[in-house]
Amino acid sequence: MNPLRSYKIGLLALLIVSMLDLYLWYNGLLLYRLGTLLLIVPILFLLFWNLLKTNLSLSIALFFCWLGDLFLLHDVNHTIQILGVSSYMMAQFFFIESILKRIKKFSLISFMMEVLFFGAYLMVFFSNILSYLKDMKFIGIAYGLVLSFLGCLSIMNFFLQQSRLRFSLFGGIFLFSVRDVMLTYNKYYFNEDYFILGVDVFYVVGLYLILQYFKTTESEIQHAKEQNLAP
């Protein structure tokens, strides 16, 4: 099958599954989300197979995202909640590793500017929600710091060489972080699924933008290598 056609079919499948997952969540059919939410990461894996088959770090990151989704659906006690947050945090570590491999130089000034941005973002969030986290405070703070570090790297990467592609990486990570904020408010502040649309949409779009960045940069790297080898 034509690669472009396969890619379009994959995007259509991702859209259909995401919309079906939203429908099931809105109507309280949470058990059936095992067949929708848990399909999102595998579809993304197939969409970006050419990238992921040679990039172990990103493959592991997606696996931990899938584990986080699984624990999210079975959020029945404190242990499951810890495992869910820990899974998503492990995914961030592998995203960080992948980004560090792409960054050619480190700009302390740019990085500190991003620290101020994400630091303020994190402080505002925790000032509103920290008291509600109870025995999840430690893991919540740890996860917030790791995700903020990832966000700082993505913005620094953008300022080192400004482009729409690099901005899309930051956008994907930012959407991912906002999705986590919404999930936290749902669970610990509202005690109900107050945010639904944003949680699903930001998760899918965020992961897609992150993977699309790595796919495009990998293609650019391979193209540069081929040009260097050309006589």
Describe the fold and architecture.
By secondary structure, the protein is mainly α. It has one domain. It has nine helices and no strands. Helix 1 (3-26) packs antiparallel against helix 9 (197-229) and helix 2 (37-47) packs antiparallel against helix 4. It starts with a helix and ends with a helix.
Which features characterize this protein?
mainly alpha; single chain; 231 residues; 0% strand; globular
Average residue pLDDT: 86
Radius of gyration: 18 Å
What is the H/E string? Answer: HHHHHHHHH
| Tally of alpha and pi helices | 9
Subunit arrangement of the protein: single chain
Structural class assignment: mainly alpha
Question: How many angstroms does the end-to-end distance come to?
Answer: 33 Å
The major β-sheet equals: none
Shape: globular
Q: What is the percentage of strand-forming residues?
A: under 5%
Please mark out the parts with pLDDT under 50 across 5 or more consecutive residues, or reply none.
Answer: none
Number of strands: 0
**Helix share bin:** over 70%
Count of separate structural domains: 1
Describe the SSE topology:
Blueprint: H1 3-26, H2 37-47, H3 49-52, H4 56-73, H5 78-102, H6 108-133, H7 137-160, H8 164-190, H9 197-229
Helix pairs in contact: 1-2, 1-9, 2-4, 4-5, 5-7, 6-7, 6-8, 7-8, 8-9
What is shown here, in short?
The protein has about 230 residues and is mainly alpha-helical. The chain is about 85% helix and about 0% strand. The chain has one domain.
